[in-house]
Amino acid sequence: MAGVGELGRTGQTGRGDGQTGLARSTRVVLAAVAAAVLAGCSVGVPDPSVRQTTPATPQPAAPTVTPGHDAGAVAARSMPFSAGATLARGVPVQVSEGLAAAPGWRSAGNSAGGASEYRNSGGCLAAAKVRTNQWPLVAGNDRESTEKLFAYLDPTILPKYLKPAVLRWGGEPGKPGPTVDVLVFERAALPKGKAAMLARVFGQAGSSVFVTVACPSASALTAARGDVERWLAVVPPAE
């Protein structure tokens, strides 16, 4: 699988073709991220210890209501890593389409890997993806599970390289509201530019959120990340 660690190598071909300028740089940066990160980070991790079988006859869906669980109360509060256990077991989170409404941004459809993609007027590309059945990544609390996700994508990404960040936890764009803890990893993208990967594993829910942002410059990435954090919400699971 093309992992996050390939980001620095992808895009080498064609560097000597003489094409210069922002447009060329942006295309190469975005192609690197799209190929090596967005498509490569399809974190649908199968559990090798579980034999995959298909029922001979349709089975009724298991109830998703957890006795004593108040989904509304969980959605109304911020979701730090330590609060991951307050989610209902097996009910996945979702990601909003709010970034498409941010000034200067537009929806770019879905990638081949199923990620929702967005582009802005500054040449940045963002993509957001939710994966379910992430039980093999669950280790300790949600922070440890998220560190394990990054290590799964690239073993060279050590926990000390990951920085804390937050996304919106539901709520309305542009208004104060609860937040959700994530970890972020930044690195350079060749021939120039910068990319950031923001992720969270929700161990109790068995799902993960992975957001990537790639821009032609570090300053553009800073601005784009600000937009992502204000407009792209992780949607709490509802029963």
Molecular structure report:
By secondary structure, the protein is of the alpha+beta class. The chain is 21% helix and 24% strand. It contains 4 helices and 9 strands; from the N terminus they run H-H-E-E-E-E-H-E-E-E-E-H-E. A 9-stranded mixed sheet has the order 1-9-5-6-7-8-4-3-2, sandwiched between helices. Strand 7 (194-202) and strand 8 form a beta hairpin. The longest helix is centred in the first third of the chain and has 17 residues, at 22-38.
Query: Helix coverage percent of residues?
Result: 10-25%
The overall average pLDDT, rounded, is 77
Percentage of residues in DSSP E strands = 15-25%
Main β-sheet, spatial strand arrangement: 1-9-5-6-7-8-4-3-2
Number of strands: 9
Q: What kind of sheet is the major sheet?
A: 9 strands, mixed
Distance between the termini: 34 Å
What does the oligomeric state look like here? single chain
* Helix-strand string: HHEEEEHEEEEHE
Structural class: alpha+beta
Low-confidence stretches are 1-63
Radius of gyration: 18 Å
Number of continuous helical runs: 4
The outline comes out as globular
